[in-house]
Specification:
Blueprint lengths: L3 H7 L29 H29 L2 H4 L5 H6 L5 H35 L9 H23 L2 H18 L4 H4 L5 H10 L3 H14 L7 H23 L3
Length: 250
């Protein structure tokens, strides 16, 4: 028989049809490999942290976009923009200040959520996984990237709802293009277009399903390409938004 402490260290034992523990050739219990960590407790804690990180990434970013999607467009409305243009400030200063305020609030809320979850679970379980906090950077970075679409469309159209809808559309298309078997299911004529779209658009799905859980559970992070290419996409759109805002005739 195996006591509870031993089971917690080696994982969950495999039982046969009669409920007996199956032994290997050396007489040791055969166990199922744990999804996270080296013990059952670590697996539970890391799994819960991965769930929180995933929820904060998918749900948190969408809710943040919904709450702040109209703030850039409001900057171009008559009344606000008239007051800004009368001040001795460069136009890009006004847009940068608005974005900085939005990003500061998002970073504060993300840090509060992840920090509180990490602190409470670490104190309760006694398992301290500081790498969980690295997921804050990935979530915040992808919010900044996705918000570049909001910024460009908001400056161009002056419509908050349109900014939000277009941004959700870009996110949806990026998720579709990230399907592993997509290129095998379409005509060869369209494959270059699909491949090009995947590399150009932000990798919202890849970062959320791969990098964020890896950071949250302390697993080695694979390729940084999805995050770096997404940051490059965001930088281009922010550059276009600032250029358009500086030259736009209000």
């Amino acid at each position: 028989t195996v006591d509870e402490d031993t089971e917690a260290e080696i994982g969950e034992p495999i039982l046969d049809a009669d409920g007996e523990v199956i032994l290997d050739d050396e007489g040791n219990p055969r166990t199922r490999e744990l999804p996270f960590g080296d013990s059952m407790l670590e697996s539970v804690v890391f799994g819960a942290q991965a769930f929180v990180a995933g929820a904060a990434y998918w749900i948190g970013i969408v809710l943040a976009l919904f709450a702040t999607g109209g703030l850039v467009a409001a900057l171009t409305e008559r009344g606000q923009v008239d007051v800004l243009l009368t001040k001795p400030l460069a136009r890009w200063h006004a847009l940068a200040a608005r974005l900085a305020a939005i990003f500061a609030v998002m970073l504060a809320l993300t840090t509060y959520l992840f920090g509180a979850v990490w602190l409470v679970m670490s104190i309760k379980s006694g398992i301290w996984n500081p790498r969980f906090l690295l997921a804050i950077g990935a979530v915040f970075a992808m919010f900044v990237v996705v918000y570049s679409v909001v910024t460009l469309v908001g400056v161009w159209s002056g419509s908050g709802p349109l900014s939000f809808v277009v941004t959700l559309g870009v996110v949806f298309v990026s998720l579709v293009l990230a399907i592993p078997t997509l290129q095998e299911q379409i005509s060869s004529t369209w494959r270059p277009l699909v491949a090009g779209g995947y590399h150009i658009l932000p990798k919202f799905g890849s970062v959320g399903t791969t990098m964020v859980p890896q950071l949250a559970t302390g697993d080695p992070v694979g390729s940084l390409y999805p995050l770096l290419s997404s940051l490059a996409f965001g930088a281009v759109l922010y550059g276009a938004a600032f250029a358009l805002f500086s030259r736009k005739d209000f």
